[in-house]
Amino acid sequence: MKITFSFAIFLLYIIEGFAQPSVIIDGYTDKASYRAGETVSFFLNAVGTGSGGVGSLCLRASNGATITCINGIDMAQQSISGSNTEPWKNGFGYSASNVTWTIPSSIQSGHYILYGPGTSPPGFEIPIIIKGDKNTANIVVVCPTNTINAYTNSGGKSLYDYNSSNGIQATTVSFLRPQDYTGGLMTGFLKWLYNTYPSASHPSANVNVISDLDMDDYSEIQNAKVLIVIGHSEYWSRQARENFDRFVDKGMDEVGHDRHAIILSGNSF
What we know:
Elements: H1 2-19, E1 23-29, E2 33-35, E3 39-47, E4 54-60, E5 66-74, H2 87-90, E6 100-102, E7 110-115, E8 126-131, E9 139-143, H3 145-151, H4 187-196, E10 207-211, E11 226-229, H5 238-253, E12 260-263
Parallel strand pairs: 2-8, 9-10, 9-11, 11-12
Antiparallel strand pairs: 1-3, 3-6, 4-5, 4-7, 7-8
C-alpha cells in the first residue's frame, strides 16, 4: 500500500511537472500603437510547457469583449540578462516570439488589452493601441501612454521615488518592458467611447485613438474636428505640446471655429 501510494505521488509530480499549462507572466510589444496593416511583435515570458509549448494571445476591447485571438505563439520562459543592470532604462531584452500579428482593417480604432485565454482574471495584461484613419477621423482621442510608462516600475524603477528600488527614481524609463496601464485613469471613458462610436445615432463619427507618442506627428490630428485628451497626460514632448497648440490655433483661424480640444483630466502636459 505504501509503495502504491508513493508511486501515485511520483506520477502526480510527473504530470504536474511536464503537463502543466503555459502561463504568460509578463510581456510587451515593440510599439505602443499600430495602424491597420502594420505588424506587431510580441516579447513574452511564460512558465509551464503547455501543449507543445505554444499558446494564444487574445485581444480584449475596453467594453470587455474579446475581438480576436492569435494562436501558435511560443511560450518560452525568459529573464532579464544579468548584465542588464538597469532594465527599467534599457528595456527587458526579451527575445521576440515566433509569431507576429498584422493588424486587420476590420478592427475598430481603440485601446485594447492582450491577455492569455483560460485564466480568470488573466495573469498579465499587455496594452496596445490600434489607430484609425488619420485622414478621415473627425474625433481624435489621446491615451496617456507616456504617463503610464513614467509610473510603471517594471525592472525596479519608475520616474518616482515612492515605487522605485532604494527610494531613488530613474531619470529615463523604457517602453520595452511590461506596462502598468491601470494608472492611466482612462478605462471608464474608453468603455463609453467603444460602446458609443460608431453607431446608428452617430453615423458620421470617425474616431482615431492614438498614444501620447503619436502627438509628435501633427498629421495624426490635423484633420480632426475634436481632439480629446483623456486620462492623465502628464508627460509630453515639446513637439507634442506645440502640435496641440497648433491644432487649437488653427481652429481659432477657421470660419465658425470648428475645431475644438477637450481636456478631461488634471496635471496634463
